[in-house]
Design a protein that fits this description.
Largest sheet: 2 strands, antiparallel
CATH topology: Arp2/3 complex 21 kDa subunit ARPC3
Number of domains: 1
Distance between the termini: 26 Å
Radius of gyration: 19 Å
Shape: globular
Structural class: mainly alpha
């Protein structure tokens, strides 16, 4: 799986997570925003991009996704604010699906940029100093970054409104469950990359 596809999947998952976050879901007594499952996948995807593009390249992808999220939030706010024709009767439903309060948007963007940068740093540190397989690096970096993401997001979004401890724990456990399930993606991406490299080498040999 090439970097272009991984980048597209990464940014798509970020946007989808924002759209689906407005519906809460419940698993085994824990409650979290609906976007938590696909959002958790982004931490594995950015680690795969880190492997392909390096630390600087991974940061650039995070900045691009941050800009896409910000654009999404601003544009949906604009569309919600613009007047609708008289025959359109779904304004409230539309706003409830794609609209979020400024506090939720601020919490999401802040948690995203902080946790993503930490994920990149932890992954780079682990890769440089500890000899482990790719899946171990992903699990370690995700264990740290998802904890930070859950704490920052819930803390900003729901401080003074809901009990924070159970919300943070529920989000963290769900994200780590997705991380474990997504481990095969690491090997699928690597295998696809090896196949592509072999094909490119064959093409080069034909032209020499």
């Amino acid at each position: 799986m090439g970097p272009t596809i991984l980048i597209a999947l990464y940014i798509a998952c970020e946007i989808i997570a924002n759209i689906t976050a407005n519906k809460p879901v419940s698993f085994f007594g824990f409650v979290a925003p609906g976007g938590v499952l696909i959002y958790a996948l982004t931490f594995t995807l950015i680690d795969l991009l880190h492997e392909r593009l390096g630390k600087v390249g991974a940061r650039r992808v995070v900045y691009a996704a941050f800009a896409a999220n910000l654009l999404f939030a601003l544009y949906t706010s604009l569309i919600i604010a613009l007047p609708s024709p008289s025959y359109f009767s779904n304004q409230e439903a539309f706003a409830s699906v794609v609209g979020s309060t400024p506090r939720i948007v601020a919490a999401s963007l802040t948690a995203y940029i902080i946790s993503s940068m930490i994920d990149i740093e932890v992954f780079a540190f682990w890769k440089a100093r500890v000899r482990t397989s790719a899946w171990a690096r992903v699990l370690v970096s995700n264990a740290v970054s998802t904890a930070v993401d859950s704490t920052v997001f819930v803390g900003i979004a729901f401080w003074g409104l809901m009990p924070l401890g159970s919300l943070i724990l529920g989000q963290y456990l769900m994200k780590m469950a997705v991380t474990v399930v997504s481990v095969p993606l690491i090997y699928a991406s690597r295998s696809a990359g090896m196949v592509r490299s072999q094909e490119e080498s064959s093409v080069e040999e034909l032209h020499t």
